[in-house]
Design a protein that fits this description.
Blueprint lengths: L1 E5 L5 H10 L3 E6 L2 H10 L2 E4 L5 H5 L7 E4 L4 H14 L1 H7 L5
Parallel strand pairs: 1-2, 1-4, 2-3
Helix pairs in contact: 4-5
The structure holds NADP nicotinamide-adenine-dinucleotide phosphate.
NADP nicotinamide-adenine-dinucleotide phosphate binds next to strand 2.
């Protein structure tokens, strides 16, 4: 399978190495050139992008069979999700989200 791992840190990098060992074609994504170099030395195909930048995402060499996201930015993502959900009555009722 062709796999993209977004966020190749403590969790993502060992996952990528294991998937490589199993014979998958694994690309890893980090934000800096130095990070990409560490991916390359682990055997992953290195990609450099910040997923908060649409221009970076548009340049990714899609498609992949699997995309694994190990990034967490809870403060930003929870706020973005709740703002959108609160604006949609059906979603806010289903998720029991209320504006505070
Ligand atoms: N570590 C644990 O023991 C543990 C336990 C339970 C759950 N988790 C969860 O597992 C997930 C990953 O944790 P981790 O310890 O592997 O974190 P980590 O070592 O900090 O790795 C996170 C990776 O995400 C990348 N990243 C962050 N923001 C990005 C963005 N905007 N665009 C592109 N890449 C971005 C970082 O890129 P750069 O390399 O470019 O900085 C880094 O490689 C988190 O959700 C965490 O809560 C971790």
């Amino acid at each position: 399978m062709r796999v993209l791992i977004i966020g190749c840190g403590y969790v993502g990098l060992p996952l990528g190495v294991e998937l490589l060992r199993q014979g998958h074609a694994v690309s890893g994504l980090r934000r800096s050139a130095a990070g990409a170099a560490s991916l390359q030395s682990a055997g992953l195909h290195p990609l450099t992008a910040d997923i908060t930048r649409p221009g970076d995402l548009a340049k990714l060499p899609l498609p992949y069979d699997w995309i694994v996201n190990t990034i967490s930015d809870k403060a930003v993502s929870d706020k973005a999700v709740s703002d959108k959900a609160v604006s949609d009555k059906a979603v806010s009722e289903r998720m029991k989200i209320r504006k505070r």
